Amino acid sequence: MDEDTIQDLKQFIAATVSQHTSDIKSGIKSDIKNLDDKLSAKIDDLSESVAEALESSNETTDSQLKDHETRISHLEQKAA
User: Fold this and answer.
1) How many angstroms from the chain centroid is the CA of residue 47?
2) 5, 51, 52, 79: which has the fewest C-beta neighbours closer than 10 Å?
3) What is the DSSP string of 14-38?
4) Positive or negative CA dihedral for 42, 44, 48, 50?
5) How many CA atoms lie within 13 A of 29 on its CB side?
6) Which residue has the higher pLDDT, 68 or 62?
7) What is the reported pLDDT for 79?
8) CA 73/CA 66 separation, integer angstroms
9) 4-28: per-residue pLDDT in tens?
């Protein structure tokens, strides 16, 4: 093999490797984007569920406090 043929092979190999790594890189970026979108949706769903649970808990606690105040008022009236 002469020097020109070797240089052509090196250039061909470099271009082929560059093309394949570019394709792999693009595929990985796409996979990461899809995973990020899915995780973001899951986190949003979980945040919404936690917010709903806290709201429900707060409503229950508030209702119990109001009922407790009413029950204490009734007890105070009976004691008087």
Assistant:
1) 10
2) 79
3) HHHHHHHHHHHHHHHHHHHHHHHHH
4) positive
5) 6
6) 62
7) 64
8) 11
9) 899 999 999 999 999 999 989 989 9
